[in-house]
């Protein structure tokens, strides 16, 4: 079997006496879109930061592209970081830089690409996310919320990553902008053959994009599978999240149109 893109094994996280994760095991295969869900404080953001190498688990390992993150030195970690992109919740653009320079920044940091090649690559990335060369000259303060997300996505994709992390990708967007952003992510994911890991509270986003859903609760991964498989797991968080009024409606739409779901992989 192929090496998973991400392999979280025996992971524990404690802050003082608080145990956040207790022996988590989670694998993400190539081409999957995995959504991390869980109640407030269940440790989604912490797990995402551990996958990004920004935090170290108390025990256990996070292996990405076959390399153990905790054992990687800073040069190796940087090489790995160049193979993934991250879209932060609020876009997190540099306010003093133009759209163009924001997208160019990861390419310039490599210090190996000539400026004319960077220029072409930035314009291509902007086109891929539905922005024009005229938008390249704008400052972040002149962009709408939806455009900021698109620029941030273009920047996350600047180095043609194999893996994309998304933190609440549709937070702050109104429903129609959220739908078009989700459609954009879906089409780029297909075109670039991306593996995606996202944290989201938004059921529509989750059901539209994810191939598997990982549910964190009670310090454990209590379910990991398709929406249908996850909702079959009896747990108060799952009932409230998926089977509350909004959840029911979203699942009805899924039943009518089908979803991108894969067979169940048991939670451990
Ligand atoms: N650096 C830290 N020091 C101490 N406690 C922390 C630290 N980072 C996170 N925690 C605690 O770990 C727990 C998990 O936090 P985390 O932010 O990962 O949860 P979350 O699932 O992302 O929550 P939310 O949905 O509210 O963002 C919380 O109880 C939080 O207070």
UniProtKB/TrEMBL annotation:
InterPro entries: AAA+_ATPase, ABC_transporter-like_ATP-bd, P-loop_NTPase
Keyword Transferase: no
Transmembrane segment boundaries: none
Single GO MF descriptor: ATP binding
Location of the ABC transporter domain: 6-243
Protein name: ATP-binding cassette domain-containing protein
A Pfam family per the record: ABC_tran
Keywords: ATP-binding, Cell membrane, Membrane, Nucleotide-binding, Transport
